Amino acid sequence: MALRTPVGGWPAAVRARVPAPSASVDSERLTGRGLALRYAGTAVVTLLLVALGAAYVSRALGIEEAIDDARRMTRGLAQIAVEPVLRDGLLTGDPEAIAALDAVVRGQVMPDLQVRVKLWDRSGTVLYSDEPRLIGEHFGLGADQLESFATGTVKAELSNLSEPENRFEEPANELLEVYLPVRTPNGTMLLLECYYGYESVTQAGQKIWFRFAPYTLGSLVLLSLAQAPIAVALARRLRRNQRQREALLRQAIEATDTERRRIAADLHDGVVQDLAGVAFSLGAATRSGGADVQQSREAADRVRQAVKALRSLLVEIYPPNLYEEGLAAALADLAAGPGPRGIRTELAIETPLDDLGVDETELIYRVAQEGLRNVVAHARASRVDIRVHRRDRVLVLSVADDGSGMDLEHLPVRPGHLGLRALADLAHGIGAGLTVESALGAGTTLRLEVPVP
Ligand SMILES: Nc1ncnc2c1ncn2[C@@H]1O[C@H](COP(=O)(O)OP(=O)(O)OP(=O)(O)O)[C@@H](O)[C@H]1O
Ligand SMILES: [Mg+2]
User: Fold this and answer.
1) Which spans are transmembrane here (predicted)?
2) Which domains, and CATH codes, for the chain?
């Protein structure tokens, strides 16, 4: 039974014999490693940026939350602890009223968190403070304090420790101050000011950061890990493509080399031998004192043969009629080639070939050419059929001979000979496929399938 094989799978061994240039192998590795490094670097930089951004946002959120807490706590303390012990005597500096408030501040308010407590009147005089040296001092009121007086709202801000009213505070300790209006029993509005250590505010920011960091950073790490296989696969594909490109390049170079060797061999075995023979017989005729008619005729015949052989070689190298007269005419010229070697050649073109693209036209011509060359070189055939037909959207070229065939599974590897392999690559490049069907003693069919619109 005849075996059928895509030509692409053929001379892996030939390819393997050609050593890859070591520089390009190194550069491939570098590309792979470079890509992995670039990927890891990007992941680390992204992680750092997100961590910094998240820290900044959490700090801002934490500060906002801590200030809100301080406001709420001050309001609670004012209502529950301070207002019930406010006496009108505070307005006049009555020591008993001051002592009553001082007891509550020291007993209930200070232990909680405050650093300092002050009670202001509208004029900006301190009526009470846990720091006795401030009581009775006049500092005036700032815009925020005045606003709090006017609107009855709670205000919170960072303390300006350089102001005289804060001269007893440690300059190194940042403070947050909260104001809120309170009333004495006779309805006089005063301003209660509580100071909180700023540390608690920044701690709140950190707390939020630590709460969110594992989710934010964790999800980023997971994302990077999930993407890693994709990155690796892409790097591999890139490397594979590079290798394929290199292999194609090598094959192209080898194919050119092989072609040059073949032309040289053709010239040497054919035309050069013929012309050498002519020169020899003309030389002999001259020496014998005159060319006889018979010798001259033979010499002229051989020169004509040589010219014909040179012409067909030129056509093979660059077939002018492929572009001037079309593919059908070029195939007809090709088919006329094996005739003189005693191989009957039949050509059947069953579909129009005029509107094919340049790539398709050249490929069909070259496959037919290589198929016929192989029949002449390897098949020991008596007949070869070239057929071009169309099946749906596929144009099919077949070159079938009745020769010795071959064992596709045990093909001899001939280094430097890759006529079909090079064509298979060419076919692959334009989406076409090349297959060989053959068995020992059962002839060979080379088939090209080209997708057409
Ligand atoms: N029609 C055929 N009949 C019998 N054997 C064939 C035929 N065509 C190809 N082969 C076998 O397949 C091998 C590979 O063919 P291919 O055209 O790739 O290389 P080549 O003809 O040996 O060398 P090159 O074409 O590079 O000059 C041939 O060496 C030959 O053994
Ligand atoms: Mg060949």
Assistant:
1) 36-57, 212-235
2) 27-262 (3.30.450.20), 321-453 (3.30.565.10)
